[in-house]
Amino acid sequence: MSGYGVEERAGPHSPEYRLFFKDGAGRYISPFHDIPMYADAGKNVFNMVVEVPRWTNAKMEISTKEPLNPIKQDVKKGKLRFVANVFPHKGYIWNYGAIPQTWEDPGHKDENTGCCGDNDPIDVCEIGSKVCSRGEVIQVKVLGTLALIDEGETDWKVIAINVEDPEAASYNDIEDVRRMKPGYLEATVDWFRRYKVPDGKPENQFAFNGEFKGKNFALDVIKGTHEHWKALITKKTDGGEINCTNLTVSESPFCCSQDCAKATVDATPPCKAASPIPPEVDKWFYYQKN
Question: Are 137 and 46 in contact (CB under 8 A)?
């Protein structure tokens, strides 16, 4: 276990819902800034914050613009966001989340894609067999990456596997996924290409014609986003609306006290039962692929 905990405030599937993070001693922390990127740098094992468990639809994400960066459900046009089920997919087809202490800088044009970053921590699709919990912090091996171009922004999708997965030792690069989970990578491209179509948007595009890049390429991309995060947290880069409040980054001007962090949490509504998920979330969408 990672030693991290969570505290729910308000009820899941409500606009007020927030999931705050604590360290092993019960102190409030930011999952964006205070959880280290590496779980084991020598072995290239990374921490991953799980935002969306596999098979679920609620678009939960680290709230980059709020103090302590709790997980909340995304809202679009005043409505809570659930990803559509584009046949044959049901919800997210991996455990989905982010690597902490990374940032895709919107002011930096990626040399590989020609597009600027999407202003978020780098995304991870974890392909192990366990369905993780929202807010779980797991350790992952990076296997490769896909370069999604989402509405003109670079949005890297790192492919990784939980180090505790029974088959983790057999996975060392992207070709191992192709060999041992046939169809999964193709389904991943299909999912990202089409998931916004039911909302009336065009299919998404990819750099490299939708081809996956391998482990070493992915590691370089992650390290680059970590450097951008370092500039953000030390105020060498203007992060705009990004909230950099943290409790552990000593060289950061945004470092705050535990009392300040507790006040942030106490200002949110107390935990309560989840709101029902709207029945239309289970609908399957069918359409002819282009």
Answer: no
